[in-house]
Amino acid sequence: MLNQYSEYLIHRKWMKEALKLSQIAGDAGEVPVGAVIIDSSKNMIAKGENRKQRDNDPTAHAEILAIREATRRLQTWRLHECTLYVTLEPCPMCAGAIVQARIGLLIYGVDDPKTGAIRTVANIPDSAASNHRLGVIGGILESECRTELQIWFANRRHSKT
């Protein structure tokens, strides 16, 4: 059994992987959000970064793409033994998909004060409409996740002036 510090180090490791993906998205002109899914053996089985602009697909959020990859790889839509790491608190669409996929644990970096649907603006996992109780840990590499988003949005605003 892992102690809390070992679990924290594992969470940091996988959030760093999600941050690498978010940088790829940001460099491509997408809102910089990245996600990875690990299995119960702590192996990465799926990843995704925002691709909404590149794919002309409003559902191409990092979490959705990672969930799609994980379900294909595992050949099941039930991901109850998996952990999803994502740099930004999921939106309502992604929160719904996370609940529907029965993700075992969600770990995210920074709260989203505009569309966060896990704890900040709405609480989809704990609502009466949810048929799955989702474990949630927020704030892993929070500063790094926040800084990346702030810099990306500042650069975007600056380039439009």
Automatic annotation (TrEMBL):
Coiled coil feature spans: none
UniProt binding sites for Zn(2+): H61, C91, C94
Keywords, ordered alphabetically: Hydrolase, Metal-binding, tRNA processing, Zinc
Residue ranges of every copy of the CMP/dCMP-type deaminase domain listed in the record: 9-121
Cofactor binding comment, as recorded: Binds 1 zinc ion per subunit.
EC top class named in words: hydrolase
EC number: 3.5.4.33
GO terms for MF: tRNA-specific adenosine-34 deaminase activity; zinc ion binding
Family: Belongs to the cytidine and deoxycytidylate deaminase family. ADAT2 subfamily.
The protein's role, per its UniProt record: Catalyzes the deamination of adenosine to inosine at the wobble position 34 of tRNA(Arg2).
PANTHER family: CYTOSINE DEAMINASE FAMILY MEMBER, TRNA-SPECIFIC ADENOSINE DEAMINASE
This protein's name: tRNA-specific adenosine deaminase
Gene, per the UniProt record: tadA
